[in-house]
Amino acid sequence: MSSRFPAVDVRADVLFVEDGQIVTSAGLAAGIDLCLHLVRSDYGSAVANAAARLAVAAPVRAGDQTQLVPTPLPGPDGAGLARTRDWALARLDEPLTLADLAAHAHVSERTLGRRFRAQTGLSPLQWLLHQRVERARELLETTDLPMDHVARRSGLGSADSLRQHLLRRTGLTPTAYRTAFARPGGAA
Predict the structure, then answer these.
(1) How many other CB atoms sit within 10 Å of the CB of residue 99?
(2) What is the model's pTM?
(3) Exposed/middle/buried for 80, CB within 10 Å: 0-12, 13-18, 19+?
(4) How many separate helices (H) and strands (E) can be counted in the chain?
(5) What is the pLDDT of residues 113-155, one digit of tens each?
(6) Are 152 and 183 in a shared domain?
(7) By the 8 A CB rule, do 134 and 85 touch?
(8) CA-based torsion, 129, 96, 149, 143: positive or negative
(9) How many domains does the chain divide into?
């Protein structure tokens, strides 16, 4: 592609790129991710997550995520971990371990890790942390809860941990994130 368009800086290793007013995606599925990113930017996490659920799409995949994550569909033998992921999502505010997730899935920790990576591209604990940060983002956008409450409700433990993980993921402190993305009249 870059040989056909030498003036364009092609980033073939990411899902989508946002450069000011110009946004572009790697393909059709990445275009869905890009659309959800734009919805999140304009309307917040809660609306983007609802749209993702309606589209039966992953709630959030960052634009800089690598394109080529081998993610085979779970087989008909019940090897999919969707029920365990849903179970964990309902308990993000609780301390969950690899052993807890494996026990719920009725597999060994090693098998859980292998299947989780095959189905999501992430280890179980990386996926769990990602979901907790996403929950924190949603709470920062939609509530005026104090930072320690946001941290506890999202399973990140403390305001310091919330700050560390959000800064790493977004480049913003929780206060800066809330200022930038909270919806007027949306805080409860």
Answers:
(1) 11
(2) 0.64
(3) middle
(4) 9, 2
(5) 999 888 888 899 999 999 999 999 999 989 999 999 999 999 9
(6) yes
(7) no
(8) positive
(9) 2
